[in-house]
Amino acid sequence: MKSSGLLVAREVTKVFGGNRAVDGVSFELERGAIGGLIGPNGAGKTTLFNCLAGHLKPSGGTITIDGQDITGASPASTFAAGLARTFQIPRPFPQMSVLENVMLAPRGQLGERFWANWLRPGAVAAQERQTRDAARHWLDFVGLSALQAQPASVLSGGQRKLLELARVMVADPRLVLLDEPGAGVNPALLDQIVDKVSALNRQGVTFLIIEHNMDLVMTLCRPVMVMAQGQLLMQGDAEAVLRDPRVVEAYLGDAV
User: Fold this and answer.
1) Is 171 inside any structural domain?
2) Which range of residues forms the domain containing residue 114?
3) C-beta pairs of 41-46 under 8 Å, 24+ apart in sequence
């Protein structure tokens, strides 16, 4: 029977030598959800993200987005399927402007084909205008419009995370994987990130978030999934998950 989940993982496994970094993880993330993925360092969360986004090829299992099998697909193919991701430590091109960094995101732009600049200059120019307009829209959305002409090197850590959010949104994804959006971010910018993710979710964007900040998880995430030693320990409502003795032992006990 076909699953109704937007993102479906079935027995996803990733082995490095003798280490099962991800060990038979299965879950479904429904359309419109903001899923949280928590667990201690070394639990396998980032490895799972890398398998979902195409940065690592799973050793076993299957991954689908909206029924399309993306198991082992390249990052470009998963991106084309509607899955985008951010990274715990954003690395924009520092000497390019903030606007130019966002304009790099859409794939398949005509201007990337050298012949199109001679054979279809009007179409290339029109597409570039559309991309620039979209980039400006998303920079305005995340509150970085005033910095769009500045080199990305001027941005703080929190602003770089907002830049990454704008950069993935210009590609119109269905699902966004956020890798620790709260890490190293001051409280004011963290509140801004939470507000923007909530607003995008109301517009229909689905999220899966790795996060250690429990306040952020409690505020945003339904459902919450807990990983420990490469396995999915449990999943459910945030309040129930964070009260579970297994979670306290596996994660919260050494994190608070």
Assistant:
1) yes
2) 95-154
3) 43/227, 43/228, 43/229, 43/230, 43/250, 43/251, 44/14, 44/227, 44/229, 44/230, 44/231, 45/210, 45/227, 46/88, 46/179, 46/210
In this structure, is the dihedral angle defined by the CA atoms of residues 88, 207, 145 and 92, taken in order, positive or negative? Answer: positive
How many domains are there within the chain?
2
Task: Identify whether the C-beta of residue 215 lies closer than 8 Å to the C-beta of residue 209.
Answer: no
75 with 171, same domain: the answer is yes
| C-alpha span between 171 and 100 (Å, rounded) | 14
Q: State the pTM of this model.
A: 0.88
Contact 146, 140 (CB under 8 A): no
Neighbour-count burial for 89-126, b at 16+ CB within 10 Å, e otherwise: ebebeeeebbbbbbbebbeebbeeeeeeeeeeeeebee
Query: Tens of pLDDT along the chain (256 residues)?
Result: 456 799 999 999 999 998 999 999 999 999 999 999 999 989 999 999 999 999 999 999 999 999 999 999 999 899 989 999 998 889 899 999 999 999 886 554 444 444 444 445 555 566 678 889 999 999 999 999 999 999 999 999 999 999 999 999 998 999 999 999 988 889 889 999 999 999 999 999 999 999 988 889 999 999 999 999 999 999 999 888 888 888 888 765 554 4
